[in-house]
Structures are given as structure tokens and as C-alpha cells.
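User: quick one, sequence for these C-alpha cells?
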């Protein structure tokens, strides 16, 4: 047992140290003890402690009517884009980086003259379908990493299709979009 010292200051601090040690042990055991208040517990520091906290952590429920309106607006925007844009897909060959498309067979675009001829043909085809549509080319990069297309080839393709809106679908996250 601890003997009480004769000095007054130490007589005060020895019992205080015992009490502090006991409180520290209780503090360490608190996470293991669950409270009786339902889902909120003493051991869960992320649990909300009052009704106000619950209201702040949970988003307000969105009425069903608003969800239907959002879905309607989203479909209208997609339909409007489909009416306005004529999207044409051009792929990049993973073996050599050359540009090609399917019509219905695979056809390469070897140079700038062939690219301009393709643009003119597809613009005329779009105008025959109806006025007000805009031609948009989407370049699809190879899905596997092969080293193609090179940066020089990408710059060359951007130059060839500079007069029309176009974009690059690069699976490695370097998306580029060019507008005329």
C-alpha cells in the first residue's frame, strides 16, 4: 500500500494521480461499451448525437414529381442533341495509328485530301436528311496501350478535321474536343 507522505502538497497529489489513472482506464474502455439509445453509441464517434445532427447528415428526400421532371428534362436534352448532331465515329488502328471508319467495310483515311472528301460526302448526306444538323466526328483511341497514335499523328488528325467539330475519346483520360 502507498504510504501517505508528510508534506501537504504530496498528500494532495498522490490521491489525485490514483483518480486520474482510474478515469484514464474508464476512457480506454468506453469504446467497448454500447449505449442504450439505439443506433447511436458511445463507441461510435461518427454517430449523430441529436436530431439536428441527423437532419444535417441526411439529404432531404426529393419528391417523386421532381424526380420525374428531372428524368423528362434529361430525355428531352438527349433527344435535342440527337436531332442537332450527326455523330460519326472514326477509329485509330492500334497497330499503326492510322485513321479509319466503317462504311460498311473498313476504309482508311490516308491523307488530308481523303479526310476533306469524307467531310464533304457526309455533310451532303446530312443535308439530304434535313437542315439544321451539325456534323461531329469522334475519334476512338485504341483500348489497349500500343504506343499509337503518336503525338504527331494526333496533331495531324486535328489539322485534317479542323473545319468540323470533333473530339477524341482517349481511355487514358486525355480527352480533347475541338470546335471549328
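Assistant:
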Amino acid at each position: 500500500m502507498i504510504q501517505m507522505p508528510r508534506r501537504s502538497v504530496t498528500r494532495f497529489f498522490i490521491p489525485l494521480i490514483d483518480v486520474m489513472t482510474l478515469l484514464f482506464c474508464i476512457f480506454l474502455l468506453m469504446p467497448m461499451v454500447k449505449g442504450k439509445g439505439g443506433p447511436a453509441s458511445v463507441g461510435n464517434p461518427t454517430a449523430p448525437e441529436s436530431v439536428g445532427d441527423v437532419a444535417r447528415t441526411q439529404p432531404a428526400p426529393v419528391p417523386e414529381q421532381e424526380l420525374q421532371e428531372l428524368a423528362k428534362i434529361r430525355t428531352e436534352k438527349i433527344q435535342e442533341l440527337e436531332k442537332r448532331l450527326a455523330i460519326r465515329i472514326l477509329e485509330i488502328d492500334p497497330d499503326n495509328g492510322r485513321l479509319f471508319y466503317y462504311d460498311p467495310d473498313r476504309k482508311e483515311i490516308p491523307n488530308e485530301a481523303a479526310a476533306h472528301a469524307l467531310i464533304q460526302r457526309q455533310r451532303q448526306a446530312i443535308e439530304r436528311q434535313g437542315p439544321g444538323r451539325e456534323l461531329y466526328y469522334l475519334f476512338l483511341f485504341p483500348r489497349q496501350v500500343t504506343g499509337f497514335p503518336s503525338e504527331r499523328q494526333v496533331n495531324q488528325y486535328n489539322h485534317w478535321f479542323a473545319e468540323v467539330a470533333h473530339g477524341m475519346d482517349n481511355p487514358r483520360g486525355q480527352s480533347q474536343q475541338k470546335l471549328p
